[in-house]
Amino acid sequence: MAYTAEFRCIAGCEGSYPLTSVMYRCPSCGDLLDVVHDLESLAVRSAASWMKLFDGRVKTTQWPYGSGVWGKKEWVAPHIAPENIVSMYEGGTNLLWAERYGKQLGVPDLWVKQCGNSHTGSFKDLGMTVLVSTVRQMISEGIAVNAIACASTGDTSASLAAYAAAAGIRAIVILPRGKITTAQLVQPLSNGAAVLAVDTDFDGCMKIVTELAENDGVYLANSMNSLRLEGQKTVAIEIVQQFDWQVPDWVIVPGGNLGNVSALGAGFEMMKHLGVISTMPRICVAQAARANPLYLSFQSGFEEFEPVVAQKTLASAIQIGSPVSRDKAIRALRLTRGVVEQATEPELADAAARADLTGMFCCPHTGVALAALEKLVARGEVSSDHRVVVVSTANGLKFSDFKTGYHDRALAEVPQPAFANQPIELPNDYGVVRDAVSRFLDERHVDPRD
């Protein structure tokens, strides 16, 4: 059966538009667009049949279905011909049982969805494969696209540059100068993108790239483009699939521009509509206290939403004061009885370090989510019998400066790191080394964290 999807206004304005249209907002009211699937056609196939089909595609070499995104092609992007798909076999990331860390918190059924174990080291690959493949489809249909452009705090630029390079399409990335890590900056440079480092913050970069898309013929790759969220919603589907199609009680995700929570909500809602699941998890969005407009809005029950001027935070990828996807995110939270929590700089850094001591290697944004989890546990909203999934959005190796600064006690934002660890420098003397080892074994014989 041929399946279809189209753009429609999230506010309900009349009209629908092909997914190959160069548009990002409703032409009537200016609101964002949703990708709306023909659910009646999808429902002709039973839930059990969909689950069996998706299970049979996991990690297969049959193009393109081994990808965690393209294994759900009918639910994601039915408009793209297989020959136009640009994929690095993204998705299919590990759902890590955080056994020791969970026991320390009193949540033994705690899991971390490691979305950073992807081609460019972040969850952004999931959406970018859909967006760049759509552009390739557009070009094959004779639609002119000069370049794809994005504003970024690091990870979006890396993902766009890699996928555009694979497709042979020019990429332009606009970054806030001096505000992303070296590891993130070198990725788009290596993949041949035009990298513009501008003296502003992310919100300023977003304003510039939006004007470029409106006036200068470049195609916009930020999450206000709803195609991105179609790939990202597969995180929700994949989590449930990895639990043998069972739904966790909680999913906790860092929130900046808020596309991720919007995508999670869409994924869970789609599965429920098609009978794959019967209940919805509760979603918690975790924000850095220095960039927390959704958290502030949550305090009034989302009656009001005011952008903030985001302050410098260690969680640089979510240092966003005017999130584009706020309305979609609020809708997802209302749908899932969701909550919003925040984390200070010491809280996010210590939470990441505490998790690292149990074998993880967390990026600062995952630290925000873990700190939020610890607060939910402390006030009893998350209990010992809950199954909890924390979405880790990026690979910790991309944030080595954050890690090194924490353990060197060199982060101004964290004057007293609770878990800092330094090498012990010793002379080349066996006795001295043996004594140091003995002291270490005596100190660590009983770990107070367990």
Describe the 3D structure.
The protein has 450 residues and is an alpha/beta fold. The protein has a domain at 95-120 and 229-407: Rossmann fold. It has helices spanning 39-43, 47-57, 73-76, 99-105, 124-140, 155-167, 182-190, 202-215, 226-232, 234-242, 259-273, 293-298, 326-335, 345-356, 364-378, 400-407, 430-443; strands at 5-9, 33-37, 95-97, 110-114, 148-151, 171-176, 194-198, 219-220, 250-254, 282-288, 339-343, 388-392. The strands form three sheets. The protein has a six-stranded mixed β-sheet, with helices on both faces. β9, α11 (259-273) and β10 (282-288) form a beta-alpha-beta unit.
Question: How would you describe this structure in keywords?
Answer:
single chain; Rossmann fold; 17 helices; alpha/beta; globular; 6-stranded mixed sheet; 450 residues
Draw up the topology in text:
Layout: E1 5-9, E2 33-37, H1 39-43, H2 47-57, H3 73-76, E3 95-97, H4 99-105, E4 110-114, H5 124-140, E5 148-151, H6 155-167, E6 171-176, H7 182-190, E7 194-198, H8 202-215, E8 219-220, H9 226-232, H10 234-242, E9 250-254, H11 259-273, E10 282-288, H12 293-298, H13 326-335, E11 339-343, H14 345-356, H15 364-378, E12 388-392, H16 400-407, H17 430-443
Parallel strand pairs: 4-12, 5-6, 5-8, 6-7, 9-10, 9-12, 10-11
Antiparallel strand pairs: 1-2, 3-4
Helix pairs in contact: 5-6, 5-9, 6-7, 9-11, 10-11, 11-13, 14-15
